[in-house]
Structure formats: C-alpha cells, structure tokens
Amino acid sequence: MARSNPKSPSSALELPDPYGHGFERIEDPLEKTRVQWTHLEGRRKLFGNIARNWLIINWRSIVGLVLAFIALLGVFFPDQIGEKNWMVVLLPIPVVLAVAPNIIAVESAWHAMQAKLSLREQGGLTDGVRHTLRVQPGIDRIIDGLRDHRRTNLVSTVLISISFSMILLATATKSGTVAWNLALLVSVTTAFIYTFYAQYTNLSVKQLGDRFPNLVFHAPTHHQTQLGSILSDLLSAHLDPDLELEWNKWKAKFNKSLMPGNDEKQALERLLYVLYLHNLGEVSDEDVRDEFSSFMIKGQLEDILYKQDTDFNWRTLQRLISHAKAWQPSAFNLLDRLQIDLLTGKPEILRAKWRMDVALDEVCVGGATNLFIVLNNQTFEQRNVTVEVLVPNGEPETRTHRFELAACPPPRNSLELSTKNDEDCLDWVPRYLQKGVVLWMNVAWNRSFYGPTNVQVVLRGEDGVVLESKVLTTEVSRRTSNALRKRMLRLEKARRIGEMEIPVSP
C-alpha cells in the first residue's frame, strides 16, 4: 500500500489577505505618501478639467438664475407650483453638478500640495534630495491662493445651498402663505447673489486642472537685479519653487545634449528665443528643427523637446515663456525692439557708441511696477558707466548703479532673421544681450500718490558726462481688479499654448 508523502510547510494554505485584492497595506510611510500624492494628483487633474469645461462653467453661471426663476414662479403662481412641488426632487443633481467638481478639484489640489511638500522635505521623490520648500519665497502666496479657492467654494456652496433649501422649505408649507412667499423670496435673493459671485470667480475656476498646479499662484517677489540671460532668467523667476527644482534638472539634461564647444547659457537662451519666435509665427517648424540641430546632438532632441508627458517640452517651454510675458510684457518689448533694430539696421545700433533701451508698463497697478533697462557698449573698448534712475514721488526717488561694460561692436549691416550660411538674428540676439547689461528694477510710489508721472533713466560715462537720457511716462493707479483680470486672461492664453500638440519630430 503506497503511502502518501506528508505535505511540506511550503505547500500549506496561505492565509487570506484581510485587506483584499488591490488594497495591500503599505508599510513604508514615504511610499504611502507617494501613492497618496499620485492619487490626489490624478483626481485633481480629472475634476479640475471637468470643472473648467465650458459647459460646466456656463451651467455654474446660470444655475442660480434657474433656481431664482423656479422660486419666482412659486411666488406668482403659488397654486399651480404647489401642485407640482414633487418636481423639487430633480433639483439636487443640477445643483451638485455646478459646485461638486470645483470642490473636489480644489480639495484634491490642497491635499496634493501638502503631500508634495512632505515628500520634498523627506527626499521621497526620484532625486532623493531633501528640499525644505515651506520656507522658500513664494510658498506663502501659493498657500494663500489655494485657501482663496477653498473660500470661494465655501461661499458658493453656502449661497446655492441656502437658495435650494428655501425652495425645499417652501414645499413643506402651504402654498401662498407668508412662510411660502418669504422662503421663496430668500431663495431668489441668494440665487441672484450666487449668480453674480459665480460670474466674478469664473476665471479662478479656469485655473483648475493645470499640469503645473502652483504656477498660476506664484509671483516673483524675489529676483535678480541684473539678468544674465533675459529669457531664461525671466522664465526661471516666474516658476514656483517646486517647479524650479524640476527646471534645474531639465537644464542639466539639456547641457548634456549640447555639441562640444557651445556655451550653455547662450545655447539655452537661443533655444528659448527660437521657441518664442515660433510661437509668434515668425519661424516655421522646419526652421526650428534646423536651428536646434546646429547646436544640439540629434539623438538627444527627442528626449529634450518631443515627449508630451514630460514637464518640459516644445509646448510647455513656449507656455512658460508666454507665462513670463503675461507677467512682464514690457521686458519682451525690449526683446522685440532689439530684433527690429537688427533686422532694419537702424543707425542707433549700427553707428552709435552706446545703445540704451528702457521699458515700463503704461499703467502701474497698485502703485508699483517693473522697470527694465538694456545697456550695450558698442565701442571696441571696455568702459565704466553709471545708470541713474529718477522716480519723482517714488520710493526711493533716486537710484544709481555702476557697471563695467564689455565691448560689443554692432553688426556692420542689417541682419536676416534666419540664414543657413551667414550670421543672423538668432545668433546675434542672445550674444548681444549677454555682452551687455539687462536690469530688472522694482519701481514704487508713495501710497498717497496717483496719476500720470515720469521716470527718467540717465546713462553717464566715467567722467560724469551724460551719454544718453530717456524719459518714460506711466499712469500710477491704485485700482487693481481690471489689471489683474487682464493678466489672468493672458495666463489662460499661455496655458492653452502648453496644451497644444507638439510638432512631429523629424
């Protein structure tokens, strides 16, 4: 009689997982936070894009009018409406549809940011480096921006809930009575208030679901006075602290993709300048690829610019450039004027010993703005100069900066925008700006001052002789709502650029 072998311990039945399939417990706290952050990010993008859909936004704007209309019908036709009060059970769905996506998106964004900050502090992301972002300049503004979103949702929810609750309360009373009419009038009032509030806050709803969740809340409160590279420094200054860490990693990868002998700063400035011109429609896709291939290793282009799912690619870089332009349009006026001077061969750039260009916003919102100055020594010798900024009624009224400017002889003739054989604007603009000085200065006025005023910029040589002087006129305004709205529209336009399809790689 054959004997069966006893079962080995390994063949024993396994105990069932008390958490069930797909609910495995994660022991590592960092991994748990990482999984939580990934889940919150996915939910934030999903419901944020639902909330900013034009159908949902329009419904959010008119749902208050719908409730007000229903309540008014009850006031004017109490008997007829009272007979059909059972239809009120259909109202919760459209009401929830108007407010729920916003609430879920904002709450997910709030908790996702907290999880991200925790991961950064503990080195729980791919680089493994710890970063204390909570103490970085600009984080407080981002947190306040998210809190404002939460307050907006709270006010909207309270208003529409009161309006809807008053309709429900009316259905519980006899039609045509004082309680019936009073409840419906309160519903009408709160519904109209909600409608105006929804219209006022629609731009903030359009910010939801962004692949860069904190970018729109960040403002460059700290920046360099002297810019080494105007485009790259402006772009970097307008990145939120978390995104700037990723930007620095991308720059390191970009530097490795350059052909030997190329200056890293000039190459980056050249890349951003080409993408800026492409976004304006001044160069074609083919021109851009030809230009990139002149200083980048061909096999590296795909990884650097053509991956749709990466933070930094062809379109997102164009979006970030446009984002900086939305904040500082006057700085880009300087860039555009330099390009025009090089293309037309103006005497100011071909024959003058000095070139000074200044830019200031036409309207200074809140009593403060940004002044940009570009200086170039177009002689063949190094020179020392002094820049004096005079701001009547300003704080301070006078500011002086001294510089040692390297020689930067201008081109002999006008240039083409892009040529394959000779030097062109795409070569000259980054190099010309790097040899000069680009100043980014904050200008402010006394709180009691408003109205038109002048700002004077004076360029003096080593002996104190005035080489050039420019006067700018601006309007100092204390009203901010209209200017902020225009900026939000420009930021929204920049975001749409980042969501466009990347041109097909060669």
Beta-strand residue percentage: 5-15%
Q: Would you identify the CATH architecture of the largest domain?
A: Sandwich
Named CATH topology of the largest domain: Immunoglobulin-like
Radius of gyration: 30 Å
Give a summary of the structure in a few sentences.
The chain is built from 17 helices and nine strands. With 506 residues, it is an alpha+beta fold.
What does this structure look like?
- With 506 residues, the protein is α+β, with helices and mostly antiparallel strands.
- It has helices at 29-51, 54-76, 78-83, 92-122, 139-171, 178-200, 202-205, 230-237, 241-256, 264-280, 285-293, 301-305, 314-327, 329-344, 347-350, 425-435, 481-498, and strands spanning 226-227, 354-360, 363-365, 368-377, 383-390, 398-405, 437-444, 451-460, 466-477.
- A 5-stranded mixed β-sheet has the order 3-9-8-5-6, with no helix packed on it. Strands 1-7-4-2 form a 4-stranded antiparallel β-sheet.
- Helix 8 packs across helix 13.
- The longest helix has 33 residues, at 139-171.
- Mean pLDDT is 87; it is low at 1-14.
Record the SSE blueprint:
Blueprint: H1 29-51, H2 54-76, H3 78-83, H4 92-122, H5 139-171, H6 178-200, H7 202-205, E1 226-227, H8 230-237, H9 241-256, H10 264-280, H11 285-293, H12 301-305, H13 314-327, H14 329-344, H15 347-350, E2 354-360, E3 363-365, E4 368-377, E5 383-390, E6 398-405, H16 425-435, E7 437-444, E8 451-460, E9 466-477, H17 481-498
Helix pairs in contact: 1-4, 2-4, 2-5, 2-6, 4-5, 5-6, 8-13, 10-11, 10-13, 10-16, 13-14, 13-17
Which characteristics define this entry?
506 residues; 5-stranded mixed sheet; 2 domains; Immunoglobulin-like; 4-stranded antiparallel sheet; 52% helix
